[in-house]
């Protein structure tokens, strides 16, 4: 346990955050209603509403995300529940895609993926959300499992990512509004920050504590908005205002899938890859002459050290996977999108 922390059990969540959370969620719709332009309601659209698509979307994506989030905990397809969820998603998701492609007023306009800028933005958002989830989960899990942190104690390591958004988002909006700034360059610099953070965290050791993560988490905090905001600007500049509702659905769907996919991959990483490291370490060290001569207590301590080292190697591999995904986004950035002007200039010239 880190010095300076009390040993008693901490609560799962602070009670005094509820009023602030409720207040923010109540205020946000009011501000949207006041600030956004109001269109005259067209009730005739209800007659063309995609009811079949809504049903397939609920069943297909609901089953898929539940499968991804709970699959590792329920032992994957050894569980009848996971088998049923997998069957429902395999049937419903393809039917949903076919329905959305041919429907006159779809919930998801799949044809937008034919635009290279929108395709790049969607892929970048999905991958960046995946990297961001891992960038938060891996340090938290490391501190909880290896150093005995309580969750609220470990949350201090992701505070830089949270607080930096209050500075980075307005700053990026100002920078990207300059027509001389290439949004692709900003995104590439953000990917470079994330790559450097992943490479730095890949050198993790059992001696690491919360302090060793702060510099790399700060780089993540700077890099993540520099990747997401420019790519979203490039993607949304390729659509017309009438397609706004479709853009919202097409952007938020990959975001939700990225969260579920990230949780699923983390479970696989810990179970399969971590098990592989444990087997290899035990097999290698078990061949040494001094192991049979140990006492029972020494063998227990030795087994604990092997388990700790296997977890550290697994976390290091997780950061390496993040680095590989970041490099893939760099390659995609070079090949797919073209330079786009700021939204105000783009709309003025349209």
Explain this structure.
The structure is a single chain. The chain is an all-alpha fold. It is built from eleven helices and no strands. Helices cover 72% and strands 0% of the residues. The longest helix has 43 residues, at 244-286.
Task: Summarize this structure as a short list of keywords or feature phrases.
disordered N terminus; single chain; mainly alpha
Beta content: under 5%
Annotation, overall tally of beta strands: 0
- Describe the main β-sheet briefly: none
Task: Determine the structural class based on helices, strands and strand pairing.
Answer: mainly alpha
Spans of at least 5 consecutive residues with low confidence = 1-21
**Average of the residue pLDDT scores:** 80
Helix content: over 70%
Number of contiguous helices: 11
Distance between the termini: 60 Å
Quick overview of this protein structure:
The chain has 350 residues and is mainly alpha-helical. The protein has eleven helices and no strands. Helix 2 (51-70) packs antiparallel against helix 3 (80-102), helix 2 packs parallel to helix 9 and helix 6 (159-176) packs parallel to helix 8.
Secondary-structure map:
Layout: H1 17-35, H2 51-70, H3 80-102, H4 116-147, H5 151-154, H6 159-176, H7 183-201, H8 210-236, H9 244-286, H10 296-335, H11 343-349
């Amino acid at each position: 346990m880190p010095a300076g922390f009390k040993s008693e059990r901490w609560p799962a969540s602070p009670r005094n955050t509820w009023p602030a959370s409720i207040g923010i969620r109540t205020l946000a719709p009011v501000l949207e209603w006041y600030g956004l332009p109001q269109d005259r309601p067209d009730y005739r659209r209800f007659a063309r509403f995609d009811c079949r698509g809504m049903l397939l979307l609920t069943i297909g994506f609901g089953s898929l995300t539940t499968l991804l989030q709970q699959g590792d905990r329920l032992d994957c397809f050894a569980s009848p529940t996971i088998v049923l969820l997998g069957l429902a998603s395999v049937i419903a998701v393809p039917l949903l895609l076919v329905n959305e492609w041919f429907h006159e007023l779809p919930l998801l306009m799949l044809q937008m993926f034919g635009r290279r800028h929108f395709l790049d933005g969607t892929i970048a958002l999905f991958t960046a959300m995946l990297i961001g989830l891992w960038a938060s989960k891996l340090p938290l899990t490391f501190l909880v499992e290896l150093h005995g942190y309580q969750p609220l104690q470990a949350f201090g390591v992701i505070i830089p990512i949270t607080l930096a958004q209050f500075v980075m988002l307005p700053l990026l909006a100002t920078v990207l509004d300059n027509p001389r700034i290439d949004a692709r360059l900003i995104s590439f610099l953000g990917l470079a920050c994330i790559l450097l953070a992943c490479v730095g965290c890949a050198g993790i050791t059992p001696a690491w504590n919360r302090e060793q993560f702060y510099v790399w988490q700060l780089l993540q905090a700077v890099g993540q908005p520099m990747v997401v905001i420019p790519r979203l600007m490039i993607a949304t500049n390729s659509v017309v205002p009438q397609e706004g509702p479709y853009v919202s659905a097409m952007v938020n769907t990959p975001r939700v899938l990225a969260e579920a996919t990230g949780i699923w991959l983390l479970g696989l990483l810990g179970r399969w890859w971590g098990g592989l490291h444990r087997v290899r370490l035990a097999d290698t060290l078990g061949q040494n002459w001094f192991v049979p001569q140990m006492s029972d207590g020494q063998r227990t301590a030795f087994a604990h050290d092997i388990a700790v080292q296997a977890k550290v190697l697994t976390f290091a591999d997780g950061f390496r996977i993040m680095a590989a995904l970041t490099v893939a986004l760099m390659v995609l950035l070079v090949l797919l999108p073209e330079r786009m002007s700021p939204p105000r200039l783009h709309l003025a010239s349209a």
